[in-house]
Amino acid sequence: MFHVLWWIILGIVVGALARLILPGRDPMGWFATLLLGIAGSLLGGFIGGLIWRAADGRFHPGGILLSLLGAILLLLVWRKVRPSAAID
Fold first, then answer.
1. Hey, how many other C-beta atoms are within 10 angstroms of the C-beta on 34?
2. Per the domain annotation, does 88 fall within a domain?
3. Rounded to whole angstroms, how far apart are CA atoms 11 and 1?
4. pTM for this prediction
5. pLDDT at position 54, please?
6. N or C: which end of the chain has fewer CB within 10 A?
7. Count of domains observed in the chain
8. Which domain holds residue 61?
């Protein structure tokens, strides 16, 4: 139960930090920001697992950095693939 709560808290923090680092017009609310952070954590954890092979499940400060990098990467991909709104 606390593991899921930790994912939610970390997801919203990482998603918000990624959007703060890459400012722009992204029409997403807090729930989409939460999903961005969680997906970034999964991507960062996957990449970190490929590099370091450390899977003990404990908290690692480098995991937050990789989560943030994963969320930034996903935000950049999101901006490339989403349909652009017409500019008046």
1. 21
2. no
3. 15
4. 0.73
5. 56
6. C
7. 1
8. 2-80
Exposed, middle or buried, 6 (CB in 10 Å: 0-12/13-18/19+)?
Answer: exposed
Are 45 and 64 contacting, i.e. CB atoms less than 8 angstroms apart?
no
Amino acid at site 46 = F
Query: Contact 44/70 with Cβ under 8 angstroms?
Result: yes
User: Given phi > 0 = left and psi -120 to 50 = alpha, else beta, which region is 82?
Assistant: beta
The C-alpha atoms of residue 38 and residue 8 are separated, in whole angstroms, by 7
Per-residue pLDDT tens over the stretch 40-87: 888 887 777 777 665 555 555 567 788 888 888 888 888 888 766 544
Instruction: Assess if residue 13 is contained within a domain.
Output: yes
Residue 28 forms part of a structural domain = yes
Residue 87 lies in a domain: no
CA distance 19 to 26: 8
- CA distances from residue 58 to 11, 51, 55, 80 in whole angstroms, order as listed: 17, 17, 8, 34
